[in-house]
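Example 9 (inverse folding). The structure is encoded as follows.
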């Protein structure tokens, strides 16, 4: 499968005249609860020719390709840096993926800058907001609902709890973050994973204890957080140097 993914990446490079610097897996496969029919969510960083950044024909900021069960999304290195200094949640996850299809020192350096500079409180609140959004959009209290959406809700809560207790960004594999949930919530999570492994559309009935736990966590208010990036100047210097070196 990795060879097929690398072929899709090569086709992307040829079609858009860019170089994909690194590529990872995002979403449920990176989290550890993909079903057999889950797509491959390939996420990349690309760079164009140096001349493109100096002239009018800038490289594409974002490339999206759907092919068979491959969903590829690639961001230009400059866009990636611009969103990094805003503590972008997608970047936080892409840089921490345990499934790497194409590795580069650039990914490791961006991860270092992001980990040092991002706003943990902003990202903690993001996980709670996403959990709340999924909960109220897809679920009714006491009603059977999608295992997938319960996993999204509880994973969001677990990641927020991880940040609160550890004061650092959470790992992606779910087994490493659900330890920050109560035992009964962990058991429910694992039950959802088991059912979802059979089919993407599996459903489950939540009990009152789970419902009360989710409602309690998601009802907690929080203040607006500061998203100021702590080492923007250093990241900017690294961005310029990398475009010069990689874009030639």
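The amino acid assigned to each position is listed next.
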């Amino acid at each position: 499968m990795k060879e097929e993914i690398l072929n899709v990446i090569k086709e992307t490079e040829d079609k858009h005249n860019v170089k994909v610097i690194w590529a990872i897996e995002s979403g449920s496969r990176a989290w550890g609860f993909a079903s057999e029919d889950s797509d491959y969510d390939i996420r990349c960083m690309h760079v164009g020719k140096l001349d493109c950044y100096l002239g009018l024909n800038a490289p594409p900021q974002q490339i999206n390709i759907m092919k068979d069960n491959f969903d590829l999304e690639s961001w230009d290195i400059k866009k990636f840096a611009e969103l990094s200094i805003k503590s972008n949640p997608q970047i936080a996850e892409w840089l921490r993926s345990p499934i790497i299809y194409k590795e580069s020192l650039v990914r490791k350096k961006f991860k270092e800058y992001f980990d040092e500079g991002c706003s943990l409180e902003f990202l903690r609140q993001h996980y709670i907001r996403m959990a709340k959004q999924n909960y109220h959009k897809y679920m009714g209290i006491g009603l059977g609902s999608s295992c997938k959406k319960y996993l999204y809700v509880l994973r969001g809560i677990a990641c927020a709890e991880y940040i609160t207790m550890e004061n650092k960004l959470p790992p992606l594999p779910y087994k490493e973050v659900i330890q920050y949930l109560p035992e009964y919530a962990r058991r429910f999570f694992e039950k959802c994973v088991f059912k979802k492994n059979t089919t993407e559309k599996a459903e489950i009935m939540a009990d009152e204890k789970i419902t009360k736990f989710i409602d309690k966590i998601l009802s907690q208010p929080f203040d607006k957080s500061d998203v100021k990036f702590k080492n923007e100047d250093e990241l900017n210097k690294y961005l310029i140097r990398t475009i010069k070196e990689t874009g030639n």
